[in-house]
User: Fold this.
Amino acid sequence: MAREAWALAENQHGVISSDQLRAVGYTGQAIYHRIKTGRLHPLHRGVYAVGRSNVTAHGRWMAAVIACGSGSVISHSSAAALWRMGPERSGLVELSLPSLSRRRRPGLEIHQRPSLQKRDLTREFGIPVTTPVQTLVDMSLRLDRPGIERMINEADKFNVVHPPQLREALEVRSGEPGVARLRCILDRRTFRLTKEELERRFLPLAAKAGLPVPVTGQFVNDFEVDFYWPALGLVVETDGLRYHRTPAEQAQDRLRDQTHTAAGLTPLRFTHEQVRYESEHVLRILAQTASRLAIATK
Assistant:
């Protein structure tokens, strides 16, 4: 029986419940004896760490799920930490229950989630948890835009869910809390202006910054550039292909910028989102750069 209990605890990141112990033959007195002798360490009511009092993060999460019973799943900041998308709330494990149960447990924050569907739930490392998509939707109600973008980037970096997959998954969740905000952020990062729209928005900013009309679509140092001012040695490139550029694209961008810099040019790079939504920032950078280059070329 001891071997069965140990194997079960090992599969559960070193934690086990009193119900599971009784199922393999342990009496209440036997459980109490093992608590007194330090072989079981209480984590929650009826949930124990086996052999040692300290458990890993996975052990904490599994213990919380076992304590809350059937149907409970790790969610919100705890799910974000499990998926490596963001930090967990200090001192708390967050869980969701697909019921209206009002059960409470010290150290646990329990959310009543009767609207959760099967598509919203999964297991990772054997731990019941909300899916990456549902976790991002939940956290979008809590974080500011930079915080959400950091989570999206981390999810992408660790191959948890990529922005195109996330955007597609949101289509069937229209109207759910958090979806519209998350979709807006994704759309701002993934859209691309047409060449005509880009020039229509960018050229007035360049003129307002004191720059003359640039050369467009010209090859400079064997690279086709978006905007070029030969007299000032200024090159401006714009990015708008995807949520964030792949490592290969980033490497190519660095190569372009390094080549221009080595040739004595000043390269600047803006995203299409910045041109469309952050025009004041673009204007300020252009004006400061134009002023510096004008002095340098006198």
The chain has a mean pLDDT of 89. The longest strand covers residues 234-239.
